[in-house]
Design brief:
With 113 residues, this protein is an alpha+beta fold. The protein contains two helices and five strands.
Length: 113
Amino acid sequence: MDCLFCKIINREIPADIVYEDDEVLAFNDISPQAPTHVLIIPKQHIATLNDIEESQLATIGRLQFVAANLARERGFAEDGYRVVMNCNEDGGQTVYHIHMHLMGGRRFTWPAG
């Protein structure tokens, strides 16, 4: 498989890993959009949000759980943070392995910017 994130999971490509368990891996984004910008991914390859199956719901919920815990650990949970998942090209997805962006450490505006 030629998936960038699968290669990171398999340690074929280095990453600055900040969290790992049996289902989830989290690492610092190489092009951060905030003081903290972590990508949280399932270890199981799922290309897009449209491809999630009912049997994978617990894993998807775990991504949210890990994001909230990382925000608490890094000290910005109470101030607030942004969690984003993009889907397909028009939604801004560039790596076709679902991933959650956890961004914090600064005030965000709406619309995103």
